[in-house]
Amino acid sequence: MNIVRILFSFIVFPGFIFSAVIGLFLTWIDRKVTARIHWRVGPPWFQPYADFLKLLLKETIIPEGSSKVLFFLGPLLGVVSMSILAVMLFSMNFNPASSYVGDLIVIIYLLALAPIGIIIGGSASKNPLASVGASREMTQYFAYELPFLFALAIVILKAGGNIKFGEIILAQEATGPFLYSLSGVIAAVVILLSTQAKLSFVPFDIPEAEQEIMAGPYIEYSGVALAMYKVTRAMMFFTLPLFLISLVWGGFANWWAILKFLLIIVLIILIKNTNPRLRIDQALKFFWIGIGILSILGLVLAFYGL
Amino acid sequence: MGNAKLWGLKKSPWVFHVAAAPCNNCDIEILDILTPRWDVERFGIVLVGSPRHADALLVTGVLNRKNLPRVLEVYRQTPKPCLVIAIGACACHPNIFQPSYNVIGPYDKYIPVDVYIPGCPPKPEAIILGVVKALQRL
Ligand code: SF4
Q1: What is chain B's alpha carbon radius of gyration, rounded to the nearest angstrom?
Q2: To test ligand 1's pocket by mutation, which of B17, B23, B92 has the most ligand atoms within 8 angstroms of CB?
Q3: Which residues belong to any copy of the NADH:ubiquinone oxidoreductase-like 20kDa subunit domain (chain B) (predicted)?
Q4: DSSP classification of residue B64
Q5: From A77's CA, which of A49, A305, B31, B62 has a CA 20 to 30 Å away?
Q6: A35 and B39: CB-CB below 8 Å?
Q7: Residue B98 sits in which domain range?
Q8: What is the B118 CA–ligand 1 centroid distance (Å)?
Q9: pLDDT tens digits, residue range B29-81?
Q10: Is B111 within a domain?
């Protein structure tokens, strides 16, 4: 019985199927809002599902001379890690008691698995552009991860040095969301920008820069494997804003959370549509110097309880 | 299963642009139909940068000895099922370039072409009509 429940939560709700369906719908919102900003009509609501279905039923080509196991391991890693992340976020928000010591660390590693999957897939596909994309993905990962960890440290400090995810949410219920303080705002901004980079949205779409290196790590992917990458991206678009809400905006176990969620999504889409792409060295400077110093400042402020 | 496949393919044809020695005018018209004015994303058509992602190849230009191996390679790399759409008078027939030593005839000698869109260059409306016809043929 228990096994069935666990499998259900991983595969159907809130794991793979639920977050994939919602995530694909969010990518439609993204495309539609982008189209409206361009003064276009934009695709119909079922567009991402049609894309997904088409990719699932198409031929999958494995490039000659590539490493077959790693070529498929790459996309699989992302899907699995994002499903687990969705399950953890939901169980910890609706049942904070199910939290255990250090689950925040587990989440950090789960978040790291998605870019690692992209790097593995890109390097396994034996294409020069894919290798360039994979190396950029790696550099970008190191760029945004540093301020991201500082921002998490701010949150942990504000929750009284607790690295239990449930405790962070309970602490916000007791004292109000962390967002309503100076260091909380800084943490939110830093996590939002890292989210943008984790999603590889403009201005941080450097790894897959369409005009320079086509699709970067995805260039050799077709059919099911490409569909898995697309769905990983969609699931990240669903789970990362939820992660942001539960860290600094008081969790999402209430109806207000839907509004907060949509606000964050639209903010991300607007940032995406009003910025040019950075170069990889500029992104590194931006995250390590600009945002890095900001997050350290936030850490100091949080230390003094501001 | 077959129906789902067809529906998916019809609703989201991603196109890859194969410029095989055109005068570049047809390519400009192809870019035109992606602009907000014609906005083919309404029909799910997206321009992709890699033939691996493509469902339809838009070929433009005169086929010649130099670019035939390239075109065949791109066709081989595209996952099937895929459509081939020949855009422009050049792609339909070598017409004025016929007597040239380098020109080796129309595309359908070498790869199966699904639809021809004549015009020098064809109007964006004509290209959209051609793509619709190609999708109906499926
Ligand atoms: S059909 Fe006309 S416009 Fe198109 S490539 Fe040929 S010459 Fe240029």
Answers
A1: 14
A2: B23
A3: 23-133
A4: B
A5: A49
A6: yes
A7: 12-137
A8: 9
A9: 888 888 888 888 888 888 888 888 888 888 888 888 888 888 898 998 888 88
A10: yes
Quick one: which of A222, A276, A149 has its CA closest to B16?
Answer: A222
- Domain annotation covers residue B3: no
ipTM: 0.85
* Cβ neighbours for A87, distance < 8 A, ≥ 6 positions apart: A9, A10, A14, A15
Euclidean distance between CA atoms A118 and A134, whole angstroms: 7
Question: According to the model, what pLDDT value does residue A1 have?
Answer: 61
Tokens standing for B63?
Answer: 């086929």
Q: Phi and psi of B47, rounded to 5°?
A: -85, 125
| Domain presence at residue B25 | yes
Any idea which of A34-38, A66-70, A129-133, A188-192 has the lowest mean pLDDT?
A66-70
Residue B113 is assigned to a structural domain of this protein: yes
Kindly list the protein residues whose Cβ atom lies closer than 6 A to any atom of ligand 1: B 22-23, 25-26, 60-61, 88-90, 120-121
Q: Nearest-CA neighbor of A261 among A271, A273, A270, A249?
A: A249
Hey, is the C-beta of A174 within 8 angstroms of any chain B C-beta?
no
pLDDT band (50, 70, 90) for residue B1: low
Q: Would you say residue A25 has pLDDT above 90?
A: yes
Domain total of chain B: 1
Inter-chain CB pairs, A–B, below 8 Å? 80
- How many Å lie between the centroid of ligand 1 and the Cα of residue A59? 33
Contact B39 A59 (CB under 8 A): no
At B53, list the tokens: 């992602």
- The residue of chain A nearest to residue B35, with distances taken between CA atoms, is A40
Are the beta carbons of A105 and A163 closer than 8 angstroms?
Answer: yes
Q: Is A193 on the interface with B (CB under 8 A)?
A: no
Q: pLDDT grade, residue A28 (50/70/90)? A: very high
Contacts of A219 in chain B (CB under 8 A): 49-50, 52
